[in-house]
């Protein structure tokens, strides 16, 4: 472990000029004044909440000096100084995010969708295509969950390893300079208590990737001090066993440096980044004795939990104060020069804050004035001045209106003049329609890709089959599909437990590591969270990963990262970033509490922004993989766990045929009842449908195929119009995905209009199925359950023709 001295001139790695030092000092004060001003803006009601990077200015300035074009950041919501220093954040943009300005030019990181302190660079052009990431300074988009940035950080660094070691990738100069990029991560000391932090650190040590993690250690996690957070109160101490034994050995390099010691920080970051970049060795820099002058956030005061002694120590060890002392002692500046820099920084921040507020608020005032003008005309034309003037005046004289105030007032006024005909009312309705469209773009757009590579734009190519093609195990269809895609696109790779040498537990990758090498078909440890993160980071960098979670039941380890990071990425950047990761797993029908999972309700609620595909067999799965690998959208594909050895034919165009998403397939036509299902339930429902046909009941069986998106053409409603009865069947818990399908069909598609009988949901029991075939039969829907549910609907309609069974 390397510990740097507190003082002495250690600027050996970079010969910083006096101008560089004074530039950093001024920039540090600009960041500090931005933090101070931001807190005031929250307390004045101009912003909702504030969390700032004060006290961490010097470490971030030092980190920025080691950060090169092509490098990446996966960080923490206090990194404003770093973002300012690398030129990827302006003070006006900083305040724009604080005010939640929904203009992507004003707040490039999130277009007002993330609270202040959540940074990111725009990786995509206006058409949704990657820009040149090898020459830009890149930041992946921040998330709030503590340590949630760590899995993605592993992937960002892992991509450098692939770009360096796989010659086939050297041609992609838009994404990398042969793996010469470092992935810089930042995290607070308290967040290192999260399990995902330790998983990511271990993964980086195993992978030996250029990942440089900075821990800003200010001794607290909100109000909880380090003695409650970390063994030995030191993350570097407890990670000492990760320190490599020497150059060429596996492990980490670990540095400890004080957050107020500017020359030591500069030296440490230069040396750490160099070893990380050249040797692809992961590095941890434990930055100690960091302060937090304003406390955790605007939600409270740190005076409530810090002693007077601690507060005094923090004031004395404020990093900007210490840098000032050092500059004076070393003769780099005079008191008057430093005073002037501080004053200039304060004025610069004031001007940026004012400009940002005006850029945010003036358009809102203009919209408000336009709405008031239309409202005034309506009141005059409808003779409702007495009844509605107070409501309109409330909007007109609101000193700080927001768009919700306008729309709320207009809707309530229109409510009062309902039924009246007037030109002013039509004008106001037109205003409302336009306002709702504009606000949908501001606040609801880009949940999914809008580029030419979005899944709806992928051309459908039908599967072709040779005459008399022999049936093979379903796994062989997938194997052939993956092999064809690996040959077509060198950016595709697969990672996961047992994926490499044995070709995954169900053999869909069998033999592919031998054909394409360990860099493209790679085993991992048992670490679902960082398997997914490894894929997210690599996808952000232009690669096409397939990350395998061995069983659907184990997706819970990774669901937080999928939900908070991947699924929200396009949305929270308003189309500024994308990570087209495919997560492959298997579930549905089998035996056992932890190997028969169908927690679809949980997944549906967690991953909006991803595609959710539930193919019934491996040929359908292959078609979906072909579509996804040509698109730029993330997806979760759930293969049927009991389908790998069922017989199918391999299409002659196994790597080329594609399936559209959101298009159900009618597996059996019928006229009496529509049964809507997916996955392994398709075979069970088809079995029951055949049995029902024998007693005179005609069942239309529909495989939805994809749940996100769901039946974009409303074809299921057309089936219900024909049959007038519907059953939704799956293996999820009661009220789970069956309820989702019912809502989509009856509510969104308005198929309730065609029903002659109560819609029915057939699901599994509320508990997970026990081990054994009997446990499966009595826990999940079986063919007899489907038969009885459908038969009962016909019995209600015609008890004479279909007498009660029981």
TrEMBL record:
Classification via SUPFAM superfamilies: Thiamin diphosphate-binding fold (THDP-binding) (SSF52518), TK C-terminal domain-like (SSF52922)
Coiled-coil stretches noted in the UniProt entry, renumbered to this chain: 331-358
Domain Transketolase-like pyrimidine-binding: 472-646
InterPro entries on file: DH_E1, THDP-binding, Transketo_C/PFOR_II, Transketolase-like_Pyr-bd, Transketolase_C
Keyword terms: Coiled coil, Oxidoreductase, Thiamine pyrophosphate
UniProt xrefs under Gene3D superfamilies: 3.40.50.920, 3.40.50.970
Pfam families the record matches: E1_dh, Transket_pyr, Transketolase_C
Keyword Coiled coil: yes
Cofactor(s) named in the record: thiamine diphosphate
Function recorded in the entry: E1 component of the 2-oxoglutarate dehydrogenase (OGDH) complex which catalyzes the decarboxylation of 2-oxoglutarate, the first step in the conversion of 2-oxoglutarate to succinyl-CoA and CO(2).
Protein name: Transketolase
Species of origin: Hymenobacter defluvii
């Amino acid at each position: 472990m390397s510990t740097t001295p507190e003082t002495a001139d250690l600027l050996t790695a970079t010969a910083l000029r006096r101008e560089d030092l004074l530039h950093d000092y001024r920039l540090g004060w600009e960041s500090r004044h931005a933090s101070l001003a931001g807190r005031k803006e929250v307390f004045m009601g101009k912003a909702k909440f504030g969390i700032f990077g004060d006290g961490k200015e010097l470490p971030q300035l030092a980190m920025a000096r080691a950060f090169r074009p092509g490098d990446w950041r996966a960080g923490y919501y206090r990194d404003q100084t770093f973002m300012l220093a690398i030129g990827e954040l302006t003070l006006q943009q900083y305040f724009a995010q604080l005010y939640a300005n929904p203009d992507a030019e004003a707040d490039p990181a999130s277009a007002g969708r993330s609270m202040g302190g959540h940074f990111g660079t725009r990786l995509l052009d206006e058409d949704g295509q990657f820009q040149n990431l090898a020459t830009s300074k890149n930041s992946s988009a921040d998330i709030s969950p503590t340590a949630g940035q760590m899995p993605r950080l592993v992937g960002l660094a892992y991509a450098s390893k692939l770009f360096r070691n796989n010659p086939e990738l050297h041609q992609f100069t838009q994404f990398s300079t042969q793996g010469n990029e470092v992935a810089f991560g930042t995290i607070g000391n308290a967040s290192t208590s999260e399990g995902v932090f330790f998983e990511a650190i271990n993964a980086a040590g195993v992978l030996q990737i250029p990942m440089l993690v900075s821990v800003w250690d200010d001794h607290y996690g909100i109000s909880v001090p380090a003695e409650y957070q970390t063994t030995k109160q030191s993350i570097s101490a407890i990670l000492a066993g990760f320190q490599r034994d020497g150059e060429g050995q596996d492990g980490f390099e670990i540095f400890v440096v004080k957050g107020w010691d500017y020359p030591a920080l500069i030296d440490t970051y230069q040396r750490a980044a160099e070893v990380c970049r050249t040797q692809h060795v992961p590095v941890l820099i434990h930055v100690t004795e960091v302060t937090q002058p304003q406390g955790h956030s605007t939600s409270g005061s740190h005076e409530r939990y810090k002693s007077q002694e601690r507060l005094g120590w923090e004031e004395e060890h404020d990093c900007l104060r210490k840098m000032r002392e050092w500059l004076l002692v070393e003769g780099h500046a005079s008191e008057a020069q430093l005073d002037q820099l501080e004053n200039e920084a304060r004025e610069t921040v004031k001007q940026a804050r004012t400009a940002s507020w005006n850029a945010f608020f003036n358009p809102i005032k203009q919209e408000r004035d336009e709405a008031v003008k239309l409202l005034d005309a309506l009141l005059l034309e409808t003779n409702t001045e007495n009844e509605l003037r107070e409501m309109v005046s409330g909007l007109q004289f609101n000193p700080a209106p927001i768009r919700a105030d306008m729309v709320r007032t207009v809707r309530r006024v229109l409510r009062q003049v309902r039924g009246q005909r007037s030109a002013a009312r039509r004008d106001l309705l037109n205003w409302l329609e336009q306002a709702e469209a504009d606000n949908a773009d501001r606040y609801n757009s880009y949940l999914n890709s809008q580029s030419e590579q979005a899944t709806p734009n992928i051309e459908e190519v039908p599967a072709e089959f040779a005459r008399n093609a022999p049936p093979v195990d379903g796994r062989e269809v997938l194997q052939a599909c993956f092999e064809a895609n690996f040959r077509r696109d060198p950016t595709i790779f697969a990672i996961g437990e047992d994926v490499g040498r044995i070709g995954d537990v169900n053999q869909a990758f069998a033999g592919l590591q031998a054909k394409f090498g360990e860099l493209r078909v790679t085993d991992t440890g048992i670490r679902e969270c960082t398997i997914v993160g490894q894929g997210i980071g690599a996808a952000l960098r232009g690669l096409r990963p397939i990350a395998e979670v061995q069983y659907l039941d184990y997706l819970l380890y990774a669901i937080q990262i999928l939900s908070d990071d991947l699924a929200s990425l396009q949305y929270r950047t308003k189309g500024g970033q994308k990570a087209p990761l495919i997560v492959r797993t298997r579930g549905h029908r089998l035996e056992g509490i932890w190997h028969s999972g169908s927690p679809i309700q949980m997944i549906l609620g967690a991953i909006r922004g991803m595609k959710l595909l539930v193919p019934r067999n491996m040929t359908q799965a292959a078609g979906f993989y072909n579509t996804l690998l040509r698109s730029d959208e993330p997806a979760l594909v759930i293969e049927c766990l009991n389908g790998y050895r069922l017989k199918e034919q391999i299409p002659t165009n196994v790597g080329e045929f594609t399936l559209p998403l959101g298009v159900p397939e009618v597996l059996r036509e019928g006229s009496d009842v529509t049964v809507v299902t997916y996955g392994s339930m398709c075979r069970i429902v088809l079995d029951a449908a055949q049995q029902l046909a024998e007693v005179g009941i005609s069942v239309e069986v529909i495989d939805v195929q994809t749940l996100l998106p769901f039946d974009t053409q409303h074809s299921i409603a057309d089936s219900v119009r024909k049959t007038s009865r519907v059953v939704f069947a799956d293996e999820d818990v009661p009220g789970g995905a069956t309820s989702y399908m019912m809502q989509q069909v009856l509510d969104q598609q308005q198929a309730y209009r065609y029903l002659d009988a109560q819609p029915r949901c057939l699901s599994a029991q509320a508990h997970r199925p026990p081990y054994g075939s009997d446990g499966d039969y009595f826990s999940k829907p079986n063919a007899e359950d489907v038969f009885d549910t459908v038969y009962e609907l016909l019995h209600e309609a015609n008890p004479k023709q279909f007498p009660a069974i029981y």
